[in-house]
Amino acid sequence: MTAHDVTSRVRPWSDPDLPVARRAAALLAAMTLQEKVGQLHQVANPDPERDAAALAAGTFGTCIVASGQHAGNVRDTGTQATAVNDLQRAAVQTSRLGIPLIIARDVIHGHRTVFPVPLGQAASFDAELVRDCARVAAREATADGVRWTFAPMLDVAQDPRWGRVAEGWGEDVWLASHLGVAAVEGFQGGPDGGDLAAPEAMAACAKHYVGYGLVQGGRDYAEVDIGPITLHNRHLRPFRAVIDAGVATVMSAFHTLDAVPVTAHVALLREHLRDDLGFTGPVVSDWGAVGELRHHGMAADDGGAAVLALRAGVDIDMVTGAYSGHLARLVGDGVVDEALVDEAVLRVLTLKLRLGLFEDPYTDPSRAAAVHLTPEHRGLARRAAASAVVVLRNDGVLPLEAPPRHVHVTGPFATATGELFGTWTLDGRAEDVVSIAAAVSERFEGTAHQDRPTRVTVDDGRFPDESHLRAREADVVIACVGEHPLRSGEANSVASLDLPPGQVEHLEALARVSRRLVVVVLTGRPLALERLAHLGSALVLVFHPGVEGGHGVVDVLSGDAPASGRLPSSLPWTTGQVPLHHDHLPTGRPLHPDGPEGRYRDHRDTAQYPFGFGLGYSPVTYTDLVLSATVLGPGEVVRASVRVTNVGTRPVVETVQLYARAHVSTISRPVSELVGVRRVVLAPGEQQEVGFEIDQHVLSHRDALGRERREPGPFTLRIAPYAGAGVTARLDVVSSPARTGTTGEGGGARLDPIDR
Ligand code: GLC
After folding, report:
1. What is the mean pLDDT of residues 422-441?
2. In the predicted model, is pLDDT for residue 97 greater than 80?
3. Confidence category of residue 2, pLDDT binned at 50, 70, 90
């Protein structure tokens, strides 16, 4: 009998030639109840020496390397492969069954190479870019021993007072779905779940299941109320998309939904997530959320919380200790059925087997130096940073192609480095960053203005009088203001979306003395910029752009990179307008075109800058919206195409957006639904025909039971540069075939498979 045969008989779970399901079942059968419970317990920052006994006893099965539930804004010592290997060695070599650990971390928007916050990546509307950023993040994080990230966040957020809007993809369901899938594929190494056993792959985690973006008043952790139709059509849809794409894990959210904490919500975690969406991987609670059932008033103690959470379908208890402290007793007392423990443990063991951890639990320590912050990764970060830049207003001062005689850079973000990272940055290093001011100097010093070297001066705005003096002397002033990342992310809600105190006054004073003032606002959330509406020559919004943020911003200001960023969330005029989103429902009393604008007596209720908006450096026209047919039957495809023309003198990257509106349906449907995006590059004077293929699935919705409904009725299709603009055409969906033999006439952009 060969050694392999012995292994296969004695420890079949160690036999890589056996199916994962069989290996997991065999291991489960060999485990004691205490060992099973250990697999459902996640601890933070374990230490191989301090926790040697716990590791030998198999008291925990996964761990998170983090500084705490507000990990996003609290730096820690980071992860190193050698430390992770020590931990793994203790688990594998000293525990009875040698079950390896999964090491998790919040790798939200990069590891050592920090990319723009997800909201900034969303401004690119570029799924390929998002996928590439996630791929690099996985390459770098796995080199430090991380094999599970708690990302992507898929919360559809309509209220920027909520600090966590920075961590998601904005207000739109389609964008969150598409970019969420791209992130999962990047993290996990490819489509259909990727190849988790690949050394550079890590398990992704769809979070925070579900509806967290609607916390009342934008107050983090507050209650959420969503009806079933809206739940299916807005908030479950991105989760459905990433589950179809093979996301490995899901994280349940903190909040209550309809008065039941998600952590204890059987309907959400079993009926919707398992039965309806078909998710089969493990669910991990959010940090401490199982124990927090006591604060929700749902449990008297951790034991009661453990019963509720396990019965609801939470497989792993993140750091509370409720499972490890009570489940074995609860099973012994007959309160909890051991079958519930077994199904949760099987999911965890299956994930470990899929990650290849039984074959190779260790990380090659030499990898990190070879992959962290390579020139290639920096180049991607620079491109991503430029894509996070949204030009909102420009009187022609941008791009600064001709080197000005004297550029003055001022404001709190002028010389900022680590602040460019944004929230949830755990492994980035401020010393890796080139500030905006330094990037301006790099770009313009050495250039000449009428044979005289361009002069660059800098101040950080601490002395406004110094700033004003310098501004008076300069041709162009670049004022870099905005929101510090400490005010962004988890537990950082704000009651006002205005710029931080004092910044507008400073800008107003600068505007009075500057020849040409370019205002650059860096932020982790949409802000209310009404007072900047007419201030200066240009207004540019940048969602915290990451390690190459300085270069990315200057690349766009100088014209070295296109101004391609588009708003992933509507910008309100004032805080009182939120929640505000383009895909709102109509009312029973539409505004009369000749009547007063809006519902507020004291302000507008439209966006100052709408979803999808952003200026390029060359005007583009949209004409000739043509449909291959005006009626769409079941199984048929209609192609909608438009002619886009660059009528300016500079190249442009145009984000062509396809919106749909159903006018008659069994539910009231949004006035504007994004259903497709295409990014095209247009040379000066160039025109292109941009097409989309549409079928009834694309125009469908879901009913209160989550069933897809492809209903007949009139639709308006809109192809536009942003919500509410562009050109429209009517399309009638019918319930019987409209044309025999109809097929897509080809040529257009086949909507992503995700739309199937
Ligand atoms: C935090 C966050 C969650 C994060 C987890 C681990 O509280 O809600 O997004 O992944 O805890 O840090």
Report:
1. 96
2. yes
3. low
| Structure letter (DSSP) for residue 447 | B
Q: Ligand 1, closest atom to CA 151?
A: 10
Ligand 1 centroid vs 149 CA: distance in angstroms? Answer: 10
| Helix (H) or strand (E) segment spanning residue 394 | strand 389-394
Tokens, residue 549: 């943020």
Judge if 210 and 252 occupy the same domain.
yes
Q: Is residue 607 a part of any domain in this protein?
A: no
Question: Which structural domain, as residue segments, surrounds residue 312?
Answer: 3-12+20-368
C-alpha 210 to ligand 1 mean position (Å)? 14
Question: CB under 6 Å to ligand 1: residues?
Answer: 64, 66, 69, 71, 106, 150, 207, 286-287, 490
Confidence (pTM):
0.96
Report the catalytic residues: 286
Which protein residue's CA is at the shortest distance from atom 2 of ligand 1?
A: 69
pLDDT tens column, 227-281: 999 999 999 999 999 999 999 999 999 999 999 999 999 999 999 999 999 999 9
Identify whether residues 254 and 290 lie together within a single domain.
Answer: yes
Burial 513-546 (b: 16+ CB within 10 A, else e): bbebbbbbbbbbbbbbbbbbeebbbbbbbbbbbb
Residue nearest (by alpha carbon) to ligand 1 atom 1: 69
The CATH number of residue 177's host domain is 3.20.20.300
Out of 577, 594, 628, a domain closes at 577
Radius of gyration of the chain (CA): 27
Q: Where is the domain boundary, 341, 368, 395?
A: 368
Distance set, CA 388 to CA 524, 564, 646 (Å): 11, 8, 22
220 alpha carbon to ligand 1 midpoint, in Å? Answer: 12
